[in-house]
Amino acid sequence: MRASDLLVPYPTVTLATPAIEAARMLADADLPGLVVVDDHGAPFAILPGTQVLRLAVPIYCQDDPNLTRLIDEAAADVFIRELGDRTVRELLPPQPHELPVVSPTATALEIAALMARTRSPLVAVVDGAYEGVVTLHGLLDRVVPA
């Protein structure tokens, strides 16, 4: 089984996409993450949904989870507003990681190893141009025995 057999179309965002719009895409389509493309449409990064939350959740709540219990429910329900006018570029980690990208001929094991190594639920498939992704769910559906 090759990446071309597991490939599915998948939405992309750009570095300039507003972070709140990226969060809305994640929520509306129940996606585990997004493919960030550069100005030429080539994959630049994979943005897991947890990275969006990292920027939305106040630092003091991340540093001390006990503080989250002190915030009333009404305020806690609107934490996503912390994204404000930020862009997808600001959601990306400062240090570049290995980009989870494969060719259409990559095997299921190659894809699984890359997902495990990069901790990414998505692997972009590129054959000159971005073609789509292999999702963790899609990969497991095909390789785990019934």
UniProtKB/TrEMBL annotation:
Membrane-spanning parts: none
Source superkingdom: Bacteria
Residue span, CBS domain: 98-143
Protein name, as recorded: CBS domain-containing protein
Classification via InterPro entries: CBS_dom (IPR000644), CBS_dom_sf (IPR046342)
